[in-house]
Amino acid sequence: QVQVVESGGGLVQAGGSLRLSCAASGSIFSISSMGWYRQAPGKQRELVAGITSAGGTTYPESVKGRFTTARDNAKNTVYLQMNSLKPEDTAVYYCAVNVVDRGSVISYWGQGTQVTVSS
């Protein structure tokens, strides 16, 4: 009932920037939180940014100071601004949307968008 679509990935040189977008649509009554995750080959999926409905954000140490997330509640969209990109940032980036549905929180995931950082 809820669709999640990421966009904005691509190839960028080290030190460059990319801006990812995540749009949620469908039967949405209330979004509790949204988050960005990434998974590189041979590595586990990791959280890179999270944002609550109140605007609170969280980042792991590996991206703090370089990545920034923001949301547009009216558009049910979250953004991930990635600056000073490093080759180790190369991964498939996924968006997760946590929706309050019938009194429960349900997570919906996008299909992912590839980010490749060259050296």
Describe the structure.
There is one protein chain. By secondary structure, this protein is mainly beta. The protein contains no helices and eleven strands.
CA radius of gyration: 14 Å
- Share of helix among residues? under 10%
Q: What structural class do the secondary elements suggest? A: mainly beta
| Tally of DSSP helical segments | 0
What is the terminal separation in angstroms?
Answer: 41 Å
Question: Could you give the order of the helices and strands?
Answer: EEEEEEEEEEE
Question: Uncertain spans, ≥5 residues at pLDDT below 50?
Answer: none
Strand and helix map with partners:
Blueprint: E1 2-7, E2 10-13, E3 18-26, E4 31-39, E5 46-52, E6 57-58, E7 67-72, E8 77-82, E9 91-101, E10 104-109, E11 113-118
What descriptive keywords fit this protein?
119 residues; mainly beta; seven-stranded mixed beta sheet; four-stranded antiparallel beta sheet; elongated
Care to give the gist of this entry?
The N and C termini lie far apart (41 Å). The chain is mainly β and 119 residues long. It contains no helices and eleven strands.
